[in-house]
Design goal:
28% of the residues lie in helices and 29% in strands. The protein has two helices and five strands, in the order αβαββββ.
Length: 107
C-alpha cells in the first residue's frame, strides 16, 4: 500500500513538472517590451498627444504588419488598452500611451 501511494505521488510530480501551458504563440514575442509606435520618435516622444482615432490607426498599422488584429478594450484618457488577436484567439493584451507612442504588453 505504501509503494502504491509513493508511486502515485511520483507520477503526479512528473506530470506536473513536464506539463506546459502557454498563453502566447511560440517564437518571437508579439510586442517586445517597451516598443514604440513608428508615428512617434524612437525615444518615446510625439510632438503632440495623439487623438483617439490616430492612436487606433497607429495600433492597427503596427500590428497589421505582423498579420494580427486589434480590438480596442478600454480608452481612458492618455492610455488605450487593446487586445491583440490572431484569428479569433487573443494572444496579447497591450497598453498604448498616446503621449509617448509606447506600446507595452501587460500579459
Amino acid at each position: 500500500m505504501k509503494y502504491a501511494a509513493v508511486f502515485v505521488i511520483i507520477l503526479a510530480l512528473l506530470f506536473g513538472v513536464f506539463s506546459e501551458v502557454n498563453a502566447w504563440r511560440r517564437g518571437k514575442p508579439v510586442t517586445p517590451y517597451g516598443d514604440f509606435c513608428p508615428r512617434c520618435t524612437q525615444y518615446g516622444s510625439c510632438k503632440s498627444i495623439m487623438s483617439h482615432n490616430d492612436a487606433k490607426k497607429a495600433m492597427i498599422d503596427y500590428y497589421q504588419e505582423k498579420g494580427l488584429g486589434v480590438e480596442l478594450e478600454n480608452i481612458n484618457g492618455r492610455f488605450i488598452r487593446a487586445r491583440i488577436k490572431e484569428a479569433d484567439r487573443v494572444i496579447d493584451v497591450i497598453i498604448f500611451d498616446r503621449r509617448t507612442g509606447r506600446v507595452r504588453s501587460i500579459y
